[in-house]
Write a structure and sequence with these properties.
There is one protein chain. By secondary structure, the chain is mainly α. Among the domains are: 112 residues; 83 residues, Serine Threonine Protein Phosphatase 5, Tetratricopeptide repeat (Alpha Horseshoe). Helices cover 77% and strands 0% of the residues. It has 18 helices and no strands. The protein is elongated and about 130 Å long. The protein starts with a helix and ends in a 7-residue tail after the last helix. It holds the Pfam family TPR_CcmH_CycH.
Length: 379
């Protein structure tokens, strides 16, 4: 009864808001037209009197009467005014019927097919209903509410973690994976999921924590594809593109034909192979890698310095010609760090950010990589 009372009250208010303007007659218009016609009639009578007294010539009187008659016709006269008023009344009646028909018809339909007696449900009641009848947001809210009351439910964290990951809530996914691992033990899937969440939270940069998680996943399952893929990506970020290519090639050999990882591995392999090929053809001097720097450490000082200076100078020149190479800037900056030339490493960071754009995806990844080396951009 409460529902129908408020529904009737709201319907009455809405109907009156429309009906009241329709009920008002255009009095000002009718009064104005009648007044004009009376004035014109007085003018006709005055002309007749002037003509009888000889104050105006008959032909001028007829011409004036004709003009006044035109004005009376334009004003509408008595019969057009009555016709207009009748049409206005008919329009207002039709509008009133339409306004009243809408709530009557809608009420009738709702009474037949609606559920006016169904009580409203609070969030808690919606969460308590059958999961098959709930939306994704309701299911997540239900899981979060359950874990808030039962934070030691490892299975709940294990279920929620990959959902957070798919929804792009990476920090929450990392927390959920850590809780699931703490409560239910480490598995290859949980460790790889944690590494992926940390990597995505870092805008695609495989941090030290993420790399540790991927390595743990491979300890538990040496064929874990997600861990292999991201560890190869970490090799690229460290300037070891050749090793990354070998790792991806080995993955393609081992992956089954129906594996969902074949496409991302093939794409990463093609992109990095073309980049390495372009790098080697752009200049006759190879770009310095970590292996080059480590090998140079065993050489005589003079030879070592000559080799390193040649490689770094070649890479620097190549970046001046093609500054849109984020991995090249990473290798150059890391080379300077390994050589202990912090000032030049920071200069390379500033130049790279200026070339890539500090707010672009490549620029942010470059800055995050520099942070892992202990560098930060100057103002």
């Amino acid at each position: 009864m409460v529902f129908w009372f408020f529904a009737a009250l709201l319907t009455l208010g809405a109907s009156l808001a429309v009906l009241l303007p329709l009920a008002n007659r255009p009095k000002s218009l009718a009064a104005g037209s009648s007044h004009d016609i009376e004035v014109y009639r007085d003018q006709l009578a005055e002309l007749d009197r002037d003509a009888l007294r000889g104050l105006i010539r008959p032909e001028d009187a007829e011409q004036a009467k004709t003009e006044i008659a035109r004005r009376i016709i334009r004003a509408g006269g008595e019969e057009p005014l009555a016709s207009t008023q009748s049409w206005a009344l008919a329009g207002r009646g039709l509008g009133a019927v339409a306004v009243l028909a809408v709530p009557l018809i809608s009420w009738g339909l709702y009474a037949v097919i609606g559920s006016p007696d169904l009580p409203s449900q609070s969030l808690q009641e919606r969460l308590a209903q059958n999961p098959s009848d709930s939306s994704v947001d309701d299911l997540i809210a239900r899981a979060e509410g359950h874990l808030a009351e039962n934070p030691e439910d490892g299975r709940g964290w294990d279920v929620l973690a990959p959902i957070y990951l798919r929804l792009g809530r990476f920090d929450e996914a990392a927390t959920a994976y850590r809780n699931a691992t703490r409560l239910q033990g480490s598995t290859a899937i949980r460790a790889a999921g944690l590494g992926e969440a940390l990597t995505n939270a870092g805008s695609g940069v495989v941090s030290a924590d993420a790399q540790l998680a991927f390595e743990q996943a491979l300890v538990l399952d040496k064929d874990q594809p997600k861990a292999k893929f991201y560890l190869a990506t970490a090799l690229v970020q460290d300037g070891k593109s050749a090793e990354a290519i070998k790792a991806w090639e080995a993955m393609l050999t081992d992956l089954p034909d129906n594996s969902p990882w074949r496409e991302p591995v093939s794409q990463a392999l093609a992109e990095n192979t073309s980049r390495v090929t372009a790098s080697s053809t752009d200049t006759g001097t190879p770009s310095p890698t970590t292996d080059n720097i480590d090998a140079a450490a065993a050489m005589a000082p003079a030879d070592r310095n000559s080799m390193i200076e040649t490689m770094v100078a070649g890479l620097d020149e190549k970046l001046r010609q093609n500054p849109s190479d984020p991995e090249g800037w990473m290798r150059l900056m890391r080379s300077y760090v390994v050589l202990g030339r912090a000032g030049e490493a920071r200069a390379a960071l500033d130049r790279g950010l200026a070339a890539l754009g500090a707010t672009s995806d490549d620029g942010r990844k470059f800055a995050e990589f520099a942070a892992t080396l202990g560098l930060s951009a100057t103002e």
